[in-house]
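Field reference: sequence -> structure
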Amino acid sequence: MNAPIRVALLGCGTVGSQVVRLLRDQAADLAARVGAPVELAGVAVRRPHKHAELGELLTTDAPGLVTRADVDVVVEVIGGIEPARTLLLEALKSGKSVVTANKALLAEDGPALAEAADASGADLYYEASVAGAIPLLRPLRESLAGDRISRVAGIVNGTTNFILSAMTSSGSSYADALEEATRLGYAEADPSADVDGFDAASKAAILASLAFHTRVTASDVYCEGIRRVTAADIAAAAGLGCVIKLLAICERVPGEAGADAAVSARVYPAMIPHSHPLAAVDGAFNAVYVEADAAGQLMFYGQGAGGAPTASAVLGDLVAVARNRVIGGRGPRESSYASLPVLPIGAVRTRYHVSLDVDDRAGVLSGIAGEFAHHDVSIAAVRQTGADEGTDGPARLVVVTHTAPEAALAATVEALAGLDAVQGVDSVLRVEDLGRHAPGVGM
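Structure field:
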């Protein structure tokens, strides 16, 4: 048996405590898989009194721990940008391999970490940063390295999927579904990162970077959350044979002005047909759908969050980097050779479901249709319901479009809002078929 692989752990919260447990419970198996014992060298925490059971392993000196001579691998599960960025850069510069679950840091500064790893010959692994226990990043980076990926789309935030699933199954409002998610522990006291789409956007940046060999950061990802999704939207989707999901969509698309290819990375709530596999993903589960030229359509599904599932992904990475240490090898490096441009959201093409409150009188529909035609947005279907009998209330008009650029649709909606006959644009939702062979959505 080779000399032990010594591990420094940064953070011992929900995920970190499970990493400690798995390292201890599976010590013999890990040693057999790695070819050397895997031992904790220290655990850096802010409040040692909360982790007294770790005894002498505890330290508040994280900078000192990550550069200690007896440390081989640094595992980071504290999250956030700082001090994680500084600590991991120091670890990599010191030749320590790094395993991290920090999607926000990777989406913002992944290239800097990759360059530091390359400079020192250390490994950088981050399977746990997207979709928890689901093996996803390694298949994108390694298993599909010989293929060309055209699309990665999925549900990568369990909190929002739980909320939308609850709204779909019970007809509840967004506020009531969020309250239930908070009560059950699926939503944080401040749910902004989840419900506003920022968490999913960070993951989309990581997925796009790996899938398309291009550096994509969180700032490149168009982001829209679920706060404005209503029970009426859910019902409208059901009427079209669809459900609403918060999707992270990363695609290789035609570039602007005749360019060969570009990357589109976006996060927003969208209608998808019941026939698509992602439509059946309910509760706090995650699922990602991958399309590649040779492999075809692939689906990855499982628990996307939680202490034990995320720790499972961390341990998988730890075994990989520890093996590399034992045999003197190196893991895959950053692949950004393609350097494709990122397409602005205005140039992205999809379909739309537009709901309007309009005056209930003759001639209104023709004026609205004229605005769609003026902005070159083709209408696929229209449904109108009159005001309630005996009232002077507005009629409801629903328009489903053919595929059109986002910028054209936005200009259309702005023009519609200015029409005298339009009392309000109630909602605008994208309609994503997601798949070469998925059936279209009609009315």
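Note: The chain has a mean pLDDT of 94.
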